[in-house]
Amino acid sequence: MSLDRFLAQSHFSEHHRLAVSAPAEAVYAAARGLTLSELPAPIFWLLAVRSLPAWLLGKGRMLEGERNRPFLDYMVAGNFVILEENPGCEIVFGMAGEFWRLVPAVRKLEDAKAFLEFNAPGSVKVAANLLVQKQGNQSLLSTETRIWAVDQKSRRRFGLYWLAIRLGSGLIRRMWLHAIKKKAEKGSEANLPETAL
Prior knowledge:
Layout: H1 3-6, E1 12-20, H2 24-33, H3 41-56, H4 71-77, E2 81-86, E3 90-98, E4 105-107, H5 112-117, E5 124-135, E6 138-149, H6 152-190
Antiparallel strand pairs: 1-6, 2-3, 3-4, 3-5, 5-6
Helix pairs in contact: 2-6
């Protein structure tokens, strides 16, 4: 798993998975192509709550006109950087900063090397993946997020922040996986040969 190469250990983590009745290639394609418009509305409500301070300060990000943009592309256009991609299997993305601030102080990282070398005091590094594995006639779709605090101060601060956001964060990830599952299974059904009458 490529995620191990970027954060083999973590101070905080979250892992979600589910079975999908579709081939792994179809699941990965669905994950890569899933647009903002295909995500459940509660995801936007949860993201809006977290972004409210930034909006009030005029630093929020508009979603209008981006509904047909792939969600992963939207993430990368924001603050995430793709650390590694094994097409058809796994994509790993990461970011770093001080997320517990009213308006998060995010450090824009250029590439995987910058992520691995990042070690600024008072910050945390976040690495997450989306992984698709063959499992018999089905696929196993999962996402794992790992957070590493650079020092004790950032670990304490992120720990308090984690208590506040963990339930919502987990809900967003579960809804994301279910949206991918729905898209992949719908696509697989559409590709089934018609049965003879």
